[in-house]
Amino acid sequence: MPLKTQKFPVHITGTHGVIIPEEHATLFVDAGHKRIHIKAFFEKNKMEFHGALRLYKGDYIVSFGKRYQKELGVFPTDFFEFQLFENTTTYGVEIPEAFQAVMESDLEGASYFEKLTDGRKRGLIYYVKRFKNKQIQVDKTLLIFENLKQGVTDPRELIKRL
Fold this sequence. Notes:
This protein is an alpha+beta fold.
């Protein structure tokens, strides 16, 4: 059974971090899970995202940037709730359907993608996810895979037409 916590209160610390109470963070860290699935709740709003538990100055922190703050409708002075879940995704982030479809249809490109570091894979998936239009997601994924097959490894160059 995947790990999960009960809901617990949090607030934004600094510019975009949320301190995770040690008893909740160590449940995941001790089990070898640095990447987690997070549900955030504020008033009638709810959102989900994936993140990493990072130790910073003795506290476990999860990034919660302005984009997430805006989506949830919170301000830095607000208290809201988090609930943590074990991350069961392959890359530490949900893969868009369009990205998955290209991976299944372009096995050579997918094999080059698999050779990248986990962080680079996540970064490229996040890049593709930010486009809401499915066709644009397909086009961006195809471009990345074509560039990988051409030997491009620089992340800035992977997303450009050669």
